[in-house]
Specification:
Distance between the termini: 100 Å
Radius of gyration: 32 Å
CATH topology of the largest domain: Rossmann fold
Low-confidence stretches: 124-131, 298-330
Strand content: 15-25%
Largest sheet: 5 strands, antiparallel
Shape: elongated
Mean pLDDT: 79
CATH class of the largest domain: Alpha Beta
Length: 330
Amino acid sequence: MDDHEIVRVGVRSLLSATPDFDICGDAVDGRDAFEKAKRLKPDVIVMDVSMPNLNGLDATRLIREALPQTEVLILSQHESSEMMRQALGAGALGYVLKSSMSNNLPVAVERVSRHEPFFVNLQSNSAEFDAHEILQRSVAFENALRESEERFRATFEHAPVGIAHLDGSGRWLRVNEKFCQIVGYDAATLVKMRYQDITHPDDLAKEILEAQKLSAGASDRYSIEKRYARPDGSWVWVMRVVSAVRDTAGNFQYVISVIQDITERKQAELVQARFAAIVESSDDAVISSNFQGLQRNYHHLERRRSAHLRFYTRRSHRTAHHYHHSAGAA
């Protein structure tokens, strides 16, 4: 539960990589977290502290009162031993710093799910600060981060190319409108699928190999021309550029995929290839012209055909010359 979508995507990607975890939902603030917790009844809730409407500490108290079997794990940016004590007092069973999320969060969730505590060891002298004072101090930072996220969301949604975020297994976490237009599926359908599900069989092996290099850290980016199956049974050609997002320690988080529809270009290339094959296999001389003049297309029988071309050219010239003199004599 976090009011910043970037953080929610990161948490979802990190936890979905663990087979034993089933992510049943997320929330945008403390009030939303409380309402969804009552409906979904999860085993563990990963809760931010600084959220609008209802902060994480107050939401934790409400959830623990309503759902005693649901454990709460606080995920916070605050390296404060006092904040940790406040979280414990609110009923949380764990406390993880966002700065160490990639290393500690999966372990913490697994331990808290067994009703065992997980609290990081903070070397901090901030015990003299009140937790509510710390929350107030973070308001300006949270607002600035929220504005930055709004700008990112607008760029993401209105980009002229298809953009998607995927986890390490290839499952779509988020897609923009242009992506949906290109592949023909709506966002709600795509987030239940993996890119492997609609990739052309002839393109799949090559991409899986590139994706494995990306996840293993052997590369940070790759591009590929491939085909996606649309719901109507047609195939759309795309240029797909994929980049890995890693944390400060270099650990894989998720991927950003950008696609552009290149179907028209591929169809034009196919027509050109077919024409070239016709020229290559023909026993006749094939001549094409453009606005700049006569152009000749040859293949492996060029010499023999060139002789025919010269013969026809001279004959045509003589015919034109003869016609000219005949007309003059008349």
